[in-house]
Amino acid sequence: MRITNSMMVSNYLSNLNTSMNKMSNLQGQLATNRKYMHISDDPVSLIYSQQARAKLHSLSIYEANVQTGQEWLTQTETAVMELNILIQTAYEQTIDASTDVKSDSDRQAIAQYVGQLRDQVLSVLNSTYGNKYVFGGYNTTGHVASSQLNPPFAYAEVDIVSGDPTQGQKRVLTYNGIDVANPGADAGKLALIAADEVNLDMGAGIRMDVSMNGVGVMNFTQSDGTAWNIYNMLDELTRTMNTAVDGDQIVADIQAFIKPLQDAQSHVLALTADLGGKTNRLDLMASRYGQDTINYTQMMSNAEDADQAEVIMRFKMAEAVYQAALATGSYVIQPTLMDFLK
User: Fold this and answer.
1) pLDDT score recorded for residue 146
2) 4: pLDDT confidence band, cut at 50, 70 and 90?
3) Which of 29, 101, 253, 258 has the most CB atoms in a 10 Å sphere around its CB?
4) Residues of the domain holding 169
5) 0.85 cut: is pTM over it?
């Protein structure tokens, strides 16, 4: 009888402890809203949860890069559209100046206007996104010259006829001090600079350039093979309009710029189309990543979060079992001094 009572008490206490542990686990789920307190509670759900968390972390990085790319492209597109307007305006002024009814003073006034357009082109090339130069590639902080930090694009005044200052001077566009149209010995260096674009990781195995280098924006080639630089073209147009020569000759000289200006505008519009394509691609990525974030968040929630209604129901059931066990134990186990003395 003593052995039977001892076994009954041992079993009772073991079962009671099991019920208490179950209530403790359920109470922990209610307090933390998590299905498991330890890895051993549900290792399969933990694996799904960690996979979802890792994916969400990657998505957060890619989404941030996509947003940066969208902002960078928006700023670039704004600058390129402004450049298109400047070229269009220069084209209209060229048409106006190439008529016989214009006097030399009229053409000189138009030349002043075109000169302002030329200077604005330089401002567009040095456009910034935050504190970074949009068309400067990774050279985002300008270049050092004479111990001073300067914008990447500038102009230099050189002799119209090399080595002959008596023929006057012209302005040429420079990038980090290199003549963009005629780099000479720096051609290799300029080629590397022109290929320098800002690339961002937009996804697993997806690396995308989100910038345009100003060298490629300014330089273009006509269908007949003639190479032009937009800034240098406007400077040459300005000097041509200021030239005092025979009326028929000046008209012909100015008209010679009409086709190059048309081709320059076509070149810029092609750049705009490329920017539009990149922007659309990033918009699609942003939409997809947004949906993926929702999906993986739901996956993580399914793996981690406890159903509060279900947990409360199970907790009340466990509580009822525990209370019933205590009540039963009070009848089964009635220890007395004599029981222990036996």
Assistant:
1) 46
2) low
3) 29
4) 54-297
5) no
147 inside domain: yes
User: Which two three-digit tokens encode residue 58?
Assistant: 């990657």
Residue linked to tokens 């039977």: 4
| Number of domains composing the chain | 1
Among 166, 165, 163, 193, which Cα is nearest to 180's? 193
In a domain, 140, yes or no: yes
**How much is the pLDDT for 147?**
45
Taking each helix axis from N to C end, the angle separating 230-241 and 247-255, rounded to the nearest 10 degrees, works out to 170
Average pLDDT over residues 236-245: 86
Q: 226 to each of 229, 234, 260, how far by Cα in Å?
A: 10, 16, 9
Residue 143 domain-assigned (yes or no): yes
Under 8 Å between Cβ of 304 and 52: no
**Beta strand ranges found along the chain (DSSP E):** 128-129, 132-133, 143-145, 148-150, 153-161, 164-175, 178-179, 199-203, 206-209, 219-221, 227-229
CATH number, domain with residue 139? 1.20.1330.10
Quickly state the pLDDT bin for 1 (edges 50, 70, 90).
very low
Helices 43-97 + 247-255 axis angle, to 10:
170
Q: Which of 307, 126, 95, 138 is nearest to 218 (CA)?
A: 126
CB distance 253 to 111 below 8 Å:
no
Which band of pLDDT confidence, cut at 50, 70 and 90, is reported for residue 5?
low
User: What residue type is 187 in one-letter code?
Assistant: A
Mean pLDDT to the nearest integer, 51-63: 91
